[in-house]
Amino acid sequence: MQIAEKVAVVTGGGAGIGAALAHALAEAGAAVLVADLDEQSAISVAAEITARGSAKAISLGGDVSDPAVLEQIISLAEAELGPVDIFFANAGTTAGLGLDTPDSQWDVALGVNVLAHVRAARLLVPKWIERGGGYFVSTASAAGLLTQIGSATYSVSKHAAVGFAEWLSVTYGDQGVAVSCLCPMGVETKLLRSGFETDQPGASVAASAVTGAGAVLSPEQVATAVLAAMAEEKFLILPHPEVLDFYRNKGSDYDRWIGGMRRYQRHLMSDS
Questions:
Q1: For a Cys-Cys bond, which of 75, 95, 172, 186 suits 177, CB 3.0-4.6 Å?
Q2: What is the pLDDT of residue 61?
């Protein structure tokens, strides 16, 4: 995939990985629509890109788990920038934690982390097949390959995001639809740090599980890794290469891996 002169949509683009992706895409020559639940953040990122003069950027605020908002995002991009070539399903939430998480929070987690991907693909893939190509990039997490200590909602929804991306690639890859799935560990974002700033039971353990597992990368480092992987149309994007070793160890001896994760959890809980 050549980024120059393409039209890209980045959800969750107002901060963190999404903002870094929007800037990196613009620097590579793409026109970008920045979408975020925080409308002002989306406006600010688009304005920064426009001020640099590297590419055209517009913005839209809204909840991307809402099908109507996704339709509005794609319609605006098509009207102002042109047909969407690349879609980054990057918006995410850490809503919910353990077994006491109410259904309403499960609905939020699954809506943002999974169904927003499904609904976007539903709108875009038929158009891409007609046009002969398109690129869908899903931001999942290493938690989607491994697990997330402390958070059932995050672990389950990110596993589902990986599963949907796999299915999408298998089903439509021969029809010109490229798919990549981003699965980082710790990234320096508000989403990560929010776990240390809340008094919700278990949140700090979930955050510590991430920061203690390996290096915490900058969003810019992750964006660089994403664009490099897209140039080769690689499915699995692992800014933390050690995740692949963890994943192999999990698959080769599931019981041993679970035992190791239990020990890690005990260690984290003893320090909390």
A1: 172
A2: 98
Superfamily of the domain at 7-241: NAD(P)-binding Rossmann-like Domain (3.40.50.720)
The pLDDT of residue 180 is: 98
Q: What's the burial of 212, exposed, middle or buried (CB within 10 Å: 0-12/13-18/19+)?
A: middle
User: What's at 10, amino acid-wise?
Assistant: V
The length of the chain, given as a count of residues: 272
Instruction: Report the interhelical angle of 203-211 vs 190-197 (nearest 10°).
Output: 130
Which H or E run contains 39? helix 39-52
Domain boundaries in the chain?
7-241
Can you give the pTM of this predicted structure? 0.92
Residue 171: CA count within 13 A, CB half-sphere: 12
Residue 201 and residue 199: Cα distance in Å, rounded? 6
Looking at residue 59, what is its pLDDT? 98
Question: Residues of the chain whose pLDDT is less than 50?
Answer: 196
Comparing CA positions, the residue from 160, 257, 159, 182 lying closest to residue 16 is 182
